[in-house]
Amino acid sequence: MLPDKLERYPRIPLAEYPTPLEPLPRLSEKLGRRVFVKRDDEIGPAMGGSKTRKLEYFFAEARALRVPRIVTFGGLQSNHARLTAGVARQLGFEPHLLYFDRRPASMEGNLLVNSLLGAEMHFIPIGGGGNAHMTLETSNRLVRWLARLLVGQHYFIPVGGHSWLGGLGYVRAAVEIERQARELGIENAWLVLAAGTGGTLAGLLAGLTLIKSNLRPLAIDVGRLWKKFPESIARMATRICFKIGQAHSFTPEQIPILEGNYVGVGYALPTRECADAIIRLARLEGLVLDPVYTGKAFAGLLDLMEKGELGSDEPVIFLHTGGTPSLFPLGQNLLETGLGPTFTNPA
Ligand SMILES: Cc1ncc(COP(=O)(O)O)c(C=O)c1O
User: Fold this and answer.
1) Which of 197, 201, 236 most suits a substitution to test ligand 1, by most atoms within 8 Å of the C-beta?
2) Ligand 1 pocket, 196 CB below 6 A?
3) pTM of the model as a whole
4) For the sheet containing 35-39, what is the strand order?
5) Mean pLDDT (whole number) for 151-172
6) What is the pLDDT of residues 109-141, one digit of tens each?
7) How far is the CA of 345 from the centre of ligand 1 (A)?
8) Closest residue by Cα to residue 298 from 52, 41, 48, 18
9) Is residue 110 lining ligand 1, measured as CB closer than 6 Å?
10) Which one of 6, 32, 267, 284 is separated from 56 by 20 to 30 angstroms, measured CA to CA?
11) Is 78 one of the catalytic residues?
């Protein structure tokens, strides 16, 4: 059984599972089919989010290795970096975060939380991947090397927690979602999520494939960040299956990701459709998304449904991965960009 095979790998539980799988009744009525949200947005410390599931495995390894310093990196508003710092403090480690950018004049959103946590933030304005010139693997290799020079001995967590070990967190989630879907009588549902480094998708895809689930994952790329992105995700999903002891190979063509369609100008630059989606969901269901990941992914979901590209009556599950701290520095213009402050009746 897959859950038993996962138990081989040490893990420090950092949240209560299963996370809720909630119906969105008013949106479902508007769209004429059942829509659900999987609430991975508030799990874990320091304002929480989906990366908690990956960090449970990384920190178990770091604890076994008895390394006091943890290093990771990401974009200025990286939720992964903030959560890594939060878990580090929760478990008594020293967090170091690398940003390949200038030190901003003021610490806002995720950076503010990092400051409260006393994370050591290293700002290195040389560009560190994330502009589609490098593969994920190359970027991680370069930063790992640099981190050794800057921080000395440490435990390194790749950008976004993108590794087979982190991916195990979403293999567990796949088993959890499948179980919940079965209990709720949800069949052949689309499972829509945002992709930044693609590790969440790789874990879900591996897990759902191995348990022969009829759920259909579909990721919306939110950044056009990496060269040969589907290749990296396919490699990761294949590796995850191998590590679990159930060999299965994925090709880049089998990776269910829509690259670039909903990114707009670039990573962390909200689109009008993203602003619309955030406002619409907040007013219809009281559910708050973020402007970097979930807002763009939800905009993609609405557009795909409108175009009839998600079938006609299959249920839809949206994976809410969190990220709301970036609303404060990046969401100031949403009301002007989106449907507008007087918009109250989302039809
Ligand atoms: C809020 C949020 N959603 C989605 C993602 C994407 O996850 P992944 O990097 O596994 O694709 C991230 C991180 O990158 C995130 O912070």
Assistant:
1) 197
2) yes
3) 0.96
4) 21-23, 35-39, 316-320, 190-195, 216-221, 257-258
5) 97
6) 999 999 999 999 999 998 766 778 899 999 999
7) 30
8) 41
9) no
10) 267
11) yes
